[in-house]
Design a protein that fits this description.
The chain is an all-alpha fold and 187 residues long. Helices cover 79% and strands 0% of the residues. The two termini are 21 Å apart.
């Protein structure tokens, strides 16, 4: 059993660093690709689709687990994050449209121009995502901790209602540690 303190809030959003690494790699591929030639861009489309799918799954997880939990406590901090998730979804739809136009283009100058615009669009989404992740980690996570982790200020029946959902967010070791800590506080 792990004995790390409950204060380590980063666990709920640890996927962010992996998502940023994936996105950064994709952005580098687009930045260094020669769009002026007629080389296929299927690898960009495939990588972008895979990343988009992973990002969509991550957003769904946050909305269905973390944001739902916050809503049970009438917290409003997740509303902005939900709106940002929708904006990311729309941005990726626009980028996929740009990729389709780029795939059909045959003129070198047009392909160079469209490739550069694709890069700029991806870079903007990357910057938006950095800001979004900061918001989640600096606003939502502290709100979760305030509502659910502070055992001395916790209203027992509210915590008892929230515990089954909160437990699903934790891995087995974290859940076991919390249950032991809870048992010690209720003795």
């Amino acid at each position: 059993m792990n004995t790390y303190p409950l204060k380590k809030r980063h666990r709920l959003y640890r996927e962010h660093k992996y998502l940023l690494c994936l996105f950064s790699t994709l952005l580098q591929k687009v930045a260094t690709h020669d769009f002026g030639g007629l080389a296929p861009i299927d690898f960009i489309k495939n990588d972008l689709q895979q990343f988009s799918d992973v990002l969509h799954g991550h957003a769904h997880y946050e909305e269905s687990r973390i944001h739902t939990l916050l809503a049970q406590y009438d917290s409003k901090v997740a509303h902005l994050a939900d709106q940002q998730h929708q904006a990311h979804h729309l941005s990726f739809a626009e980028i996929f449209e740009r990729l389709e136009v780029l795939a059909q283009a045959t003129d070198r100058e047009e392909r160079l121009d469209l490739g550069y615009k694709l890069y700029l669009d991806l870079r903007r989404v990357f910057a938006d995502m950095l800001s979004h992740f900061n918001y989640e980690e600096q606003m939502i996570l502290p709100e979760l901790q305030t509502l659910l982790s502070d055992m001395k200020d916790c209203v027992p029946d509210k915590f008892a209602i929230a515990w089954p959902m909160l437990k699903k967010l934790l891995n087995i070791d974290e859940a076991e540690y919390c249950e032991v800590a809870l048992a010690m506080h209720t003795v």
